[in-house]
Amino acid sequence: MDEKVQLAAVPSRPAAWALALLGLTIALVVGLDVFTKYLAVTHLTDRPPVRVLGGVLYLDLTFNSGGAFSLGTGLTWLFPLVALVVTGWIVVLARRLRSAAWAVALGLVLGGAYGNVGDRLFRAPGFMVGNVVDFASLFGPNAQYWPIFNVADTALSCGVVLALLLELTGRRRDGARASGGGASGTGSA
User: Fold this and answer.
1) Tally of domains in the chain
2) Quick one: average pLDDT of 82-91?
């Protein structure tokens, strides 16, 4: 009998508001990414880096055929496939989504992945091998101190960090907290 009560307490379906927040986060990230890349290509093409915020940020247009830190430059076609796998994984995780923090974390990851996949699919040199538009360089131009990145990269990184923090602090996707306050095998969907 206790087992039935315990099972009933665990939500079996995602909350509509959590899925809406997930979708809204994805849409905001992709929209902001597309808009900033449009601005970068329009205003930074054939220009030297633009110093902003006293040199903390440089707007420096580059086209990246690789992944993070320009790794995998010969495997550009693989990145959209990885995004497809990540999408499938997040769909499985979202089956019991009832946490605003998890909805935002997963939305940031998917929005970031989709932002860069759009470049892979629709930019030169061609379908599935397009170069990603990067334009933000920290503390110096030309990736002098940190790799050049974009909004999608930032969202993806922040989403992964937030998901790790949620997992490590025992916050589950169904809105419950794992007993003991730490990670306790909550990685299952």
Assistant:
1) 1
2) 90
